[in-house]
Amino acid sequence: MPACRRYARRAMAGSPPGCLMIFLSSLEFLMVHRYWPDLVKPRTFSEKIWSRMLFDRDLRWILLSDKLQARSYVAKRAGNEYLVPLLWSGRDPDRIPWETLPSKFVIKTTHGCGYNLIVRDKSRLDPETARRQTRKWLGTNYGETFGLGTEWCYRHIPPSIIVEEFLEEDGRSVPDYKFWCFSGRVECLTVHLNRHGAHATQTFDRDFKPYIYAFPLADSGQSVQPPPNYEDMVRAAETLAGGIDFIRVDMYNVRGRILAGEFTVYPGGGFIRFLPHELDAALGAKWPSNEVP
Fold first, then answer.
1. Coil, strand or helix: which one is 109?
2. What is the pLDDT of residues 112-123, one digit of tens each?
3. CA 73 to CA 63: how far, in whole Å?
4. Are 134 and 161 in contact (CB under 8 A)?
5. CATH fold of 2-286, please?
6. Regarding beta strands 176-182 and 185-193, do their DSSP bridges make them parallel or antiparallel, or are they unpaired?
7. pLDDT digit string (tens) for 66-97?
8. What is the pTM of this model?
9. In the chain, what are the domain boundaries?
10. Do residues 241 and 181 lie in contact, with contact meaning Cβ atoms separated by under 8 Å?
11. Are the CB atoms for 233 and 227 separated by under 8 Å?
């Protein structure tokens, strides 16, 4: 399989994918989701994610996935008040202004997933170690190296660094609200708790009622209540998702202030296994058909 993945990554450098690439992707899909997909005429949500990765070359996916450029999109669509405070941005780790940064902050690179450094106490941070890690991320093309290399949009994001404010409330990291939007409408959301510790999640429909959703994380076991301005969050998510057949809008709520986190074009890179299968089909039905011409 490693040799197949190396081939697939090279193949995805071109467009469109050939029959062998589609076969390899289908085989990988089968291993994860346990059914053989139709990636040319997709019906389930998971099939449509993979079909988007293989065939859809909409330039909006690059803009929305670029953590720096997406800020301009949020400001234009919703307003500057929805932006997470930006402390610094640039392309050279040596220029990060350690001395002027607060005691807590988050370092991210703009061109992939998981390229985050959570700094809870600057006095315990070794700047050279942070610079070395950031350089490694900047030198990696996430779209070429992750999985089969099918996450096309990440191949074209210029690597850069952003330093954002550390979001917390009462000394704890704030929940991460991930709104799954179809044709500009929130259908469901996953609430992620304690992202930097014992990560757990709960899932709800748009009315914040429990939703049957097999996410590969432990249920928090907590009684999660919607924030008082939850309806405002839904409206903001739908404003940002307007005109898009499917997008996941990640948001925070800090002492009543709604902030846009990230946009996710390929949730889980297509590797989230939805159980039961009926839910995968139901979410796929909410996504307008994206059959390959």
1. strand
2. 999 999 999 999
3. 8
4. yes
5. D-amino Acid Aminotransferase; Chain A, domain 1 (3.30.470)
6. antiparallel
7. 999 999 999 999 999 999 999 999 999 999 99
8. 0.91
9. 2-286
10. yes
11. yes
